[in-house]
Design brief:
Blueprint (H helix, E strand, L loop, with lengths): L2 E13 L6 E13 L3 E5 L6 H8 L7 E6 L2 E2 L5 H8 L2 E4 L11 H11 L4 H14 L15 H13 L5 E5 L7 H18 L2 E6 L2 H7 L2 E6 L2 E7 H6 L4 H11 L5 H10 L3 E7 L5 H11 L3 E12 L2 E11 L3 H10 L4 E3 L4
Parallel strand pairs: 3-8, 3-9, 6-7, 7-8
Antiparallel strand pairs: 1-2, 1-4, 4-5, 9-10, 11-13, 11-14, 12-13
């Protein structure tokens, strides 16, 4: 798969005007984005996500390092050429950034008008895009007449107006309710699959990454600390930051408060076993417990899907003399099984 975006050793430092202190927003990031994929970039507030996306479309230039998009090094060309390069990069924003005084059609047509596209071609393209996002019947409405989800659909249509190769979605669903978020993410996935547009999704919500991304990059304190296939990161997160995000999305492990309630009702030892898409895994776990003479009662957990592959965790109350042997057998076969420590 060819590389569309290439970051090499990218850093961005600011100097605070009031104190003269140097602020590190992004530090030594090297990252590839492949043609046709959806890459989720996740991190908590202040991790450097939004700065990174502004570096990708050259709205800001790095303090060091290089940014290359579609074979063109944006950090090595004049600003006039960077403006032209940005036409191949669409942007979707958290707060929609629609013109309140323009109709929905007028908002989508705006970048085409700026680019000098004829009115006839603008009208054709606007109708095509509004039909794609399901808002053709609202073409002459104004933004204030639309819901948040509809406004974001307009933002997506506008971002697609110039047929970009790359779409950057910066916290595009953060202002939306969960149901509307799922609808917008499904639309972005259609953009990727049907139009072939490469997408970078900037978010602090791991559930959004689970729904749409092929790969995920985890940021912490300005650095990319983990990159991988979204299923691999969910099933075997390597860093503490990734582990925290995965827990917020899967909701499959008991919280400390839940553990206290479980212990009141279940005096045995509590073990949480990770579930993957391995064929027959559940039957194998049950067989190990039976052969060791261990009684296993399921007391907590959840199993879902990522990219049509099963993932989750199940927490058991185990009783019997063969618990340690059973757990050792599971671990030896590659199954992750952790005892929930007493409070």
């Amino acid at each position: 798969m060819s590389v569309l975006v290439e970051l090499r050793g990218v850093s961005k430092h600011y100097r605070r005007a009031d104190t003269g202190e140097t602020v590190v927003a992004v530090e030594d990031v090297s990252l590839d984005v492949h043609q046709g994929e959806v890459l989720g970039v996740i991190g908590y507030s202040g991790a450097g996500k939004s700065t990174l996306v502004r570096l990708v479309n050259a709205l800001e230039l790095p303090s060091s390092g290089s940014v290359t998009v579609a074979g063109q090094e944006l950090t090595a060309i004049p600003e006039r050429d960077r403006r032209l390069a940005r036409r191949r990069i669409g942007m979707i924003f958290q707060q929609f950034n629609l013109f309140r005084s323009r109709t929905i059609a007028g908002n989508v047509a705006y970048p085409l008008k700026v680019a000098g596209v004829t009115k006839e071609e603008r009208d054709r393209r606007v109708a095509e895009l509004l039909d794609f996002v399901g808002l053709l019947d609202r073409a002459y409405a104004y933004p204030e007449q639309l819901s948040g989800g509809q406004k974001q659909r307009v933002g997506i249509a506008r971002a697609l107006a110039s047929n970009p190769e790359l779409l950057l979605a910066d916290e595009a669903t953060s202002a939306l309710d969960p149901e509307t978020t799922s609808e917008v993410l499904a639309l972005l996935r259609r953009v990727n699959r049907e139009l072939g547009v490469t997408i970078i999704v900037i978010t602090h919500e791991m559930d959004a990454v689970r729904q749409i991304a092929d790969r995920v990059a985890v940021m912490e304190q300005g650095r990319v600390v983990e990159v991988g296939d979204v299923y691999d990161v969910f099933s075997k997160p390597k860093t503490g930051a990734a582990q925290r995000f995965v827990r917020t999305a899967l909701h499959d492990r008991p919280s400390p408060e839940t553990l206290l309630r479980l212990r009141d009702r279940h005096p045995g030892r509590l073990f949480t076993v990770q579930i993957t898409d391995e064929a027959g895994l559940q039957n194998r776990i049950d067989a190990v417990f039976r052969s060791a003479g261990v009684s296993a009662e399921l007391v907590y957990g959840g199993v879902g899907e990522i990219r049509e592959r099963r993932i989750g965790s199940l927490t058991y109350e185990l009783t019997g003399d063969g618990i340690d042997d059973a757990i050792a057998s599971l671990r030896a076969s590659g199954v992750t099984a952790d005892e929930e420590a007493a409070a």
